[in-house]
């Protein structure tokens, strides 16, 4: 894990205190709208704290939001805790891998082509435009499904040129 420093002043003397910044995380997320905002805030804080560029973090947070929202709308939670599992971590080239594991649903996630007036159906298209790759795999537990995506580093030419908050405001989910 990389280290980051925090500057603290004690009696007029500046000290740098080393703190470990996580390069990956896994968390149980409540299966519902509130879980989306909670996971998004934690991911943003951890990735920025690890020194990841803001443009990459913005794209990764949007991908996580879409994956969790799709899980909330189309899949079951895992077990009696009514949660899904969100995970993220840095890739070797400076990107971010993001995944959400849930209890599966009646269909497998797939790209759709919604009409202009449709209220939904664009989540995987957004993920496709931001990620260099994404997919679906069966989870380690029977019935569980993991949807994953890899957000490339910003210098690769992929990803958005807009900040996450400019694209959509999902704070209503918090």
Describe the model.
The structure is a single chain. With 174 residues, the protein is α+β, with helices and mostly antiparallel strands. 29% of the residues lie in helices and 29% in strands. The protein has a five-stranded antiparallel beta sheet, with helices on one face. Strands 1-2 form a two-stranded antiparallel sheet. A hairpin with a 2-residue loop joins strand 1 and strand 2 (13-20). Helix 1 (33-49) runs antiparallel to helix 2 (54-74) and helix 2 runs antiparallel to helix 3 (123-130). The radius of gyration is 17 Å and the shape is globular. The two termini are 29 Å apart.
In short:
The protein is an alpha+beta fold and 174 residues long.
Offer a few descriptive terms.
five-stranded antiparallel beta sheet; disordered C terminus; 174 residues; two-stranded antiparallel sheet; alpha+beta; 7 strands
Percentage of helical residues? 25-40%
Write the element-wise H/E pattern from the N-terminal end onward.
EEEHHEEHEEH
Uncertain stretches of 5 or more adjacent residues:
156-174
Mean pLDDT across residues: 78
Distance between the termini: 29 Å
Structural category is alpha+beta
Secondary-structure topology with pairs:
Layout (H helix, E strand, L loop, with lengths): L2 E8 L2 E8 L3 E7 L2 H17 L4 H21 L8 E8 L5 E7 L20 H8 L2 E6 L6 E7 L12 H4 L7
Antiparallel strand pairs: 1-2, 3-4, 4-5, 5-7, 6-7
Helix pairs in contact: 1-2, 2-3
